[in-house]
Design a protein that fits this description.
alpha+beta; six-stranded mixed β-sheet; two-stranded antiparallel sheet; 13 helices; 12 strands; 13% strand
């Protein structure tokens, strides 16, 4: 109640420096894509800047869970590359669904994947810079030396950290011209969904087979020196912040509360909003019967029928490795090749599936004795 009677000057904000180091998780979520943008180098206020001061930097983008199998090439990866997951929006696939998509490049030449020029992370940088300028002007007007030093230290800390974390995306390029098998890819997600992708070898190598590499602007030794300097500047800035006048401490508190809320909101947005993936064009292929299925066996049969191959099922250990399942998979492949279904290369459509009772066939292989008695 003392605040109501004595006014706001009775407030004790000695711990306002803690607000400057809160919000680490929301900063880390978008730190890697943010470092692709030149706006990341702007002098600005950043919540929890210590999250960006690490002893080592990620060498690649974080992959997602899933099994990537070459439908005909025999390749396999037990993870889904970060960009491939974003491009296909793998989280949107319902359980046991089977989706077909074709990926092509919108232009020739080396890969051109970058941060979205004016995506949400860009506006976070601009917001932090504007708050730094506003507090800088107020500190000069109030003749608050400690606040002025705190603003300069905490703002240019972001530039120092930005230089250490600045990187460009490096995707693998295929240089050999020898003939290769068809490059179609099948992704099996943990929820039983399948994503069948039609693409050429160059696109497959960039998106699915080789991990994205982070090519940093400075080498590891310089980065560690910058990190040490950033740590000292952060501590010095927080000390100066704690000795600023009450008016400036209130300004810092409001700024960091707003920034933490803004970073949390951006972290909750779809990550695709922060990436410019227009270099790749994704076309969804619809087919008769629809993508959704009730159970795994139905989804697996559709995926085999579309690819007209079960080789990838065995390589990826997609189905149980029992004798009964093996016989069912072989029969499914025979049925898929016997009809006129599958992906039509010329017209780029998925034809009607063969009429086959996949569920009865699996029951027959699992319980041969009961099947023989019912005949």
């Amino acid at each position: 109640m003392r605040f109501l009677t004595d006014g706001y000057k009775s407030l004790q904000l000695d711990i306002v420096g803690f607000l400057a180091i809160l919000g680490e998780s929301s900063v880390l979520v978008q730190s890697q894509v943010a470092a692709l943008s030149y706006f990341f180098l702007l002098p600005r206020l950043v919540p929890a800047p210590q999250a960006l001061i690490r002893t080592s930097r990620p060498e690649r983008l974080e992959p997602s869970t899933g099994i990537v199998v070459g439908a005909y090439s025999g390749g396999i990866r037990h993870y889904v590359n970060h960009l491939a997951h974003l491009l296909h929006n793998g989280n949107s696939l319902p359980a046991y669904s089977v989706r077909c998509e074709k990926v092509t490049k919108t232009k020739e030449g080396s890969s051109d994947v970058r941060a979205r020029p004016f995506g949400p992370i860009t506006w976070l940088s601009i917001l932090g810079c504007m708050m730094s300028l506003a507090l800088f002007a107020i500190a000069i007007a109030q003749d608050d030396g400690f606040a002025l030093v705190a603003i300069l230290a905490l703002s240019f800390l972001s530039t120092l950290v930005g230089i250490g974390n600045r990187w460009v995306l490096k995707l693998s390029e295929r240089k050999a011209n020898r003939p290769v098998p068809p490059s179609d890819v099948v992704i099996n997600y943990p929820n039983g969904a399948f994503l069948i992708i039609k693409c050429d070898e160059y696109t497959a190598r960039e998106l699915y087979w080789h991990p994205e590499q982070c090519d940093y602007m400075v080498n590891p030794t310089i980065y560690r020196i910058l990190s040490l300097g950033g740590t000292l500047i952060l501590m010095f800035g927080v000390i100066c912040l704690g000795n600023a006048t009450l008016d400036l401490q209130l300004g810092f508190a409001a700024s960091y509360i707003i920034l933490n809320a803004a970073y949390w909101v951006v972290a909750a947005l779809p990550p695709q909003w922060n990436w410019d993936l227009s270099y790749y064009h994704v076309r969804r292929i619809h087919y008769e019967g629809g993508e959704e299925n009730k159970f795994f066996t139905q989804a697996l049969w559709k995926a085999i029928a579309i690819t007209q191959s079960a080789h990838w099922v065995k390589i990826g250990l997609i189905a149980p490795s029992s004798k009964a399942w093996g016989a069912w998979i072989e029969e499914a492949e025979e049925m898929a090749k016997s009809g006129h279904g599958g992906w039509d290369e010329k017209e780029d459509v998925v034809r009607e599936f063969p009429d086959w009772d996949f569920d009865a066939a699996l029951t027959r292989h699992l319980y041969p004795d009961e099947a023989s008695r019912s005949v």
